[in-house]
Every structure is written in C-alpha cells, then in structure tokens.
Amino acid sequence: MQASKLLLFIILVASIVGFVDASYLAAKYYSGSAVECAILAGCAQVTTSKYAEVAGVSIALVGAIYYFALFVLGILFREKSETRFLVAIIALSGLGFIASVWFTYLQIAVINALCVYCLTSAASTTAIFVSSLFIWRSRREPRYNLAPAPLDNLSHGEKP
C-alpha cells in the first residue's frame, strides 16, 4: 500500500474510532448515565465535570460532529484528490489537536483524573492531524532534484 493511501486509511479509521468514542460519551451524557472506566478510574469524574459542556452542549456531541466531518472530508479527499479537502482536514484536526491538548491538561492538572475515552479521542485526533501533515508533505515534495551538485573539488583547492 502506498504511503499516502496508508495515511489516508489511518485518517478514516481514526475518525471512525473518534466518532464511536464521542458518540458513546454523548449518549451517556444526555441519558444521564455514568461513564465507567475499566482501565482508568476517572471517567465519571471527568465526564461530569464543569468542563464536559459548553453552554449546555456536551463536548462529546461536538466531538462526534467533528469526527463525522473529518470522515466526510477524508472520503472527499480520497475520491477527488483535491488539495482543498486536505487543507480542511489539516485545519480542522489542527484545531482538534489544540483542543485535545487543552482537555488533557484539564484532566491532569485541574480535574486530577483521567478518562480513557477522552484519551482515546485525543489519540485519534493526534493520528488524524499527524497523518494529514505527512500527506501534505508528501504532496509538496519536489519531483525533481534541482539542487546543485556538491562542490567536492573546492575542498582540494581546485577551481570549479
């Protein structure tokens, strides 16, 4: 599998993982059910904190919409191979990455609890952002080596 195709596959899979993860948390939030963690003990503490919503809207619901949008953009980029879709993925996942760093900071430094679902979302966003940057870089690499040949003769005192 070509590197760009593998990276796009990672973007699509990570967006599905993030969507399922965020949708689960949103469903729990709106049903009023507690979120239990099997690995870490802080899920309920994090998901019921004052940071779990903004203006009455669950951050998890915003996350589900975010991951759905990234999935759609990934499919559009795969089908049309237009740079504008890749730029949108980079911009959106870049914002998501910044938000993930912020929410991880809140979990560690403010709430003093970690939520495995939230960390899964942060990992998904990071995978999408980094993969999209690698795709961008691979599309921007020059196809021809236009750099001048090394000047080895100068090291021996010879004139070019």
Short recap of the structure:
The protein has helices at 3-31, 43-47, 59-80, 83-111, 116-140, and strands at 53-54, 57-58. The protein has 160 residues and is an all-alpha fold.
CATH class: Mainly Alpha
Q: Which stretches are poorly predicted, pLDDT < 50 over at least 5 residues?
A: none
The total count of helices amounts to 5
**Mean pLDDT over the full residue set:** 90
In the CATH hierarchy, what is the architecture at level 2? Up-down Bundle
Task: Give the spatial strand order of the biggest sheet.
Answer: 1-2
Blueprint (SSEs and pairs):
Layout lengths: L2 H29 L11 H5 L5 E2 L2 E2 H22 L2 H29 L4 H25 L20
Antiparallel strand pairs: 1-2
Describe this structure in words.
The radius of gyration is 21 Å and the shape is elongated. A hairpin with a 2-residue loop joins β1 and β2. It contains five helices and two strands. The chain has helices at residues 3-31, 43-47, 59-80, 83-111, 116-140; strands at residues 53-54, 57-58. α1 (3-31) runs antiparallel to α5, α3 (59-80) runs antiparallel to α4 and α4 packs antiparallel against α5 (116-140). It has a single domain, classed as Up-down Bundle (de novo design (two linked rop proteins)). It has a two-stranded antiparallel sheet with strand order 1-2. The N and C termini lie far apart (45 Å). It is 69% helix and 2% strand. The protein has 160 residues and is mostly helical.
